[in-house]
Amino acid sequence: MMPCNIAVCVKPVPDPNYYDQVTIDLNTKTIARAGIPSIVNPVDKNAMETALKLKERYNGTIAIFSMAPISARENILELLAMGADRAYLLSSSAFAGSDTLATSYILNAAINKAENMEECKFDLVLCGHESADGATAQVPPQLGEWRGVPHLGNVCSLTLTDENIFHVTTKQENSFIDWELVPPAVLSVSREINSPRHISAVGIVKAPKKPFVVWERDDLTFADNMYIGVAGSATLAGEVFIPNTKRKTKEFNGTPDEIADIIVSLLAKRVIAISGLQ
Amino acid sequence: MTKKIWVYADIERNTVSDITLEILSKAQKLANQCNDATSVEVVLIGNFVEHLIPDLALAGADIVYLLEDPRLEFWSPSVYIPVLVELVSVYNPEVFLFGSTAQGENIGPGLAARLKTGMSAHCVDLQMDSHGMLVSYVPAFGGKVIGKILCPKTLPQMASIKPGVFINDKSTPKEERVVMFAPKSLDSIDFSKLKHVRNRYETISGVPITKAELVICGGAGLHCQEHWQMLERIAELSGGAIACTRPAVDLGWAQETSMVGTSGCNIRPELYIGFGISGATHHLCGINKAKYIVSINSDSEAPVFNVSDIKIVSDAGVILKKILEKLGS
User: Fold this and answer.
1) How many CB atoms are closer than 10 A to CB A26?
2) Which residue of B has its CA nearest to A103?
3) CA distances for B292 relative to A256, B211, B236, angstroms
4) Which of A50, A179, B39, B248 has the CB geometry, 3.0–4.6 Å to B254, for a possible disulfide?
């Protein structure tokens, strides 16, 4: 059996439990999220768990790639503690404001450089299906295109056969699709694929000793530098606003019996004529 | 010269998906907003899909590009993307819209990368500005914030739209006009790298939530599976569709297909009744087009009450039990 080398792409995101605290700075017209802690995008840990399971069975190495501010080091250490072998943090003011086209372009350049340096080819690049904050789900398929390899999203099952073919299951609206895939490839996984393991004390001790590389703009080689940062993005972010979804709420007070009566009448008529509202 | 708004036809089980009709309906409104003559055109890919052309013309497609080949029977990013690159480079549409479905999410962004153009994801609205540019309204942070996105430098301007965001209302039926296209790129694709093996369909019972007039929704506030089963029974008795939030899926009560919100679907029923829903941002973003929202939750401060028409502070489990008694079951 061949060893399986895996790159896992991760994104630090503001903790989704605090999204009701996100506001807009009315002066700068930008999103204000001060005080919201940064965590590893939850489904990226499922990608990490997928990589760990493959490594346990087939050996190989796991490298983390993340494009984020230098402060993301803490988040990346968590993945090293889970069992990744090394990490590459791509951090440069030149990368700021990158859209999905630019982000996937930069990730690809970094993965290529790591492959050349380590003289190892990645059989798989694994990602979480979408990030909690932007939730576009666009980076994985775009990364697949930059790399010129097959890609699939919403992967809910993944096994490697002795013939070095992956059996992949993806989910769609009302069905599952089974695929056979010859690596290398880029796959983005959904939450159902597994339950990410907890970090062990040993893992926490080992993590800071593992190779942790920071690459800036000039450390990477780009075939052309058209697709980096705001200037290299194909999309342009305009005005942001908070949609007003508030309604004129009326409260109904009553015993459970009275409440149930109201609901039953709603279910029967589906029209709203409730007396006793305050 | 006539401008073109393209819509990717999402074909599932040999029929045109609702999302395609919803986008087609919106695309006609966008075309009407343009100063220049603009036609709404559909890209139809598959094997034996020609019979779907009348449906698309009836739904307002001015032109249908038909790409039929046995090698195109199943969608695959490795096959459909190169074929679409070729089609786009011949006809140069100004706008290309996809559904945020499995097909759309696998194919659209990859196509955008190959064309080095911009794509905005999971739009909740689309407009044409006075310069004829597409303005996409994109949710972030679970829908708490909406941002406007433009694609100013390159064509086509691409966007994906979630099912249930637009209404498939009366379209103007068009004459059937078909452009047959035989992609040359098919001959140079390596089909051995990614093979579609089989499609396994789930049996979905009951009313689909995106179409339902009555939606009964349960969340973590139900506390136990027994209460969830009561909710299912009530939905069955009243002909409503069952919806849920993320915790109900994680606890193994509900199917992910019934999840409503940013990572599920958007709904627009006449009446939504939420039992034990606290109102996380990502869920509220999926229900705000419901005509009437009734919420039952024991926490009087639950955020869901801010977006509700009727607020009932009570234990959802107790109320469910009472309702079942009254429904005689």
Assistant:
1) 8
2) B113
3) 21, 15, 20
4) B248
B234/A19 Cβ within 8 A: no
- Nearest 5°: CA angle at A264, between A259 and A269? 130
CA–CA dist A275, B297 (Å, integer): 20
- Other Cβ atoms less than 10 A from the Cβ of B239: the count is 13
C-alpha distances out from residue A230 to A102, B120, B156, B232, Å: 8, 15, 19, 49
The DSSP result for A153-211, as a single string, is EEEEEEEE-TTS-EEEEEEETTEEEEEEEPSSEEEEE-GGG--PPPPPHHHHHHGGGS-
Mean pLDDT over B80-105 rounds to: 97
Residue B49 main-chain phi, psi, to 5 deg: -115, 0
Distance CA B326, CA A114 (A): 66
SS3 A214: strand
**Residue B225, CA distances (Å) to B106, B218, B219, B253 in order:** 35, 11, 11, 6
Residues A109, A168 contacting (CB under 8 angstroms): no
Q: How high is the ipTM of this complex? A: 0.92
CA pair distance A72, B190, nearest whole angstrom? 39
CB-based contact A245 B306, cutoff 8 Å: yes
Best of A33, A36, A138 to substitute, by most chain B Cβ atoms within 10 angstroms, is A138
DSSP code, position A269:
H
Query: What is the rounded distance in angstroms from the CA atom of residue A144 to the CA atom of residue A152?
Result: 9
Would you state the pLDDT for residue A219? 96
Two structure tokens written together for B280 = 């996380």
Q: Which residues of chain A have pLDDT under 50?
A: 271-276, 278
User: What's the pTM value of the predicted model, to 2 decimals?
Assistant: 0.90
Compare CB distances from A133 to B140, B163, B270 and report the shortest one's residue: B140
